[in-house]
Structure formats: C-alpha cells, structure tokens
Design goal:
The chain is mainly α. It has two domains: 6-74, no CATH class; 101-193. It has helices at residues 7-17, 25-43, 49-54, 61-74, 82-98, 102-149, 161-191. The model has no long low-confidence stretch (mean pLDDT 88).
Length: 193
C-alpha cells in the first residue's frame, strides 16, 4: 500500500535523484556568506574582510573567498559619478586583501585606472559634443518660435526631452564599448591567484 509522503520525504527523494557529484552543497551555503561579507566591507569603512574570511573553517574558506571576490568584482563599474569611483576604490582594496599575487593584481588595477580615466574623458567629450550639436539644431527652432510668438523664448538644452533621449542612446553605445573592456579586465582578475 502506498503511503502518503511528507514534504520532507519528497524533498529527500528529489535530492537523491539529483547527481550530487555535480552539486556542491558547501559552495551553495558558503558563497552567499562571502557575498554578504563583501557587501558589508563595501558599506563599512572599518570592516575587516580578511578577519571575516578567517572566521570560517579552512575547508570552506575557498567558497567564502569566491563569494567575496565575485561581489567585489560586480561592484567595479564604469565611473559615472564620485560614488562609483569610491565604490571601485573600495572593491579594489578588498580584492587586494584577498588575492595572493598582489603585483599581478596591481598591474590589472593600473589598467583599470587607465580605462576609467579614458572613459571619463570620452564621456565628457561625447556629452559636450552632443549638447553643442543639439543646441545648434534647437536654436533654429527657437528663432522660428520667437518670430511666430513675438516673445523671447529660452530653451534649456540639457532638460529638453529629445536631448535627454538622444543622450541616453549615445551613452548606452559608449558604455557598451567600455563594458566589454571592463569585463575582460575582470576576467584577468578572476584568473589571478
């Protein structure tokens, strides 16, 4: 006679049915703990990332470290503002504390700094060029409107919806180019012991 199975028994059957050689349960448990610690490190100036890592038993530290590294890498972004610069700097500090080959890591960080500086200049230059081009086009429409209404009309280019829409498109294209290079740099960091 078939008995009714509890939810626990059903869950156990599903786990047994899975190929446990392919599922690393320790990684599933401890990588998120590393991610949480790295997030805390990014928020709290005096948080001891290595001290937190060393709290875990030796056999699971690799998982915790992996979670930490991935969270720190995800937080390295193209510098859109001062907050991003600060987050990038802090994430790099954390990675420097975790990685053994510090000289190789410093070399990649140097390349990242160059990328960020170049991106910032390209971002500012692209914005200025778009604004100038849009202002020239808008000026003609503004003059026609002034003649029609007989009053002085002032239009703020940077707040004009068409300008904002165009800037978002151009910014997306620019970011796409640099995101590819940033992803390559992150892969280099992942490969450093």
């Amino acid at each position: 006679m078939d008995k009714i199975k509890s939810a626990y028994e059903k869950a156990l059957e599903r786990v047994r049915a899975m190929n446990l050689d392919q599922v690393d349960l320790s990684g599933m448990e401890f990588e998120p703990k590393g991610s949480q610690a790295a997030a805390r490190f990014l928020r709290e100036k005096n948080f001891d990332l290595l001290g937190e890592l060393n709290r875990y038993p030796e056999d699971v530290r690799g998982y915790v470290r992996k979670g930490m590294e991935e969270t720190l890498l995800q937080n390295i972004q193209l510098p859109a503002d001062e907050n991003t610069y600060e987050t990038n700097r802090r994430a790099m500090e954390g990675l420097l504390a975790l990685k053994k080959n510090k000289s190789a890591l410093k070399q990649v960080f140097s390349e990242l700094e160059y990328l960020f500086n170049y991106y910032t200049r390209a971002f500012e230059h692209t914005y200025a060029n778009l604004k100038e081009s849009f202002a020239a086009r808008l000026e003609q429409a503004q003059e026609a409107l002034q003649r029609q209404l007989g009053v002085k009309v002032r239009v703020d280019v940077e707040r004009h919806p068409a300008f904002l829409e165009e800037w978002l498109r151009v910014q997306g294209e620019l970011n796409g180019q640099y995101e590819t290079i940033l992803a390559e740099q992150k892969e280099k960091i992942r490969s450093i012991p």
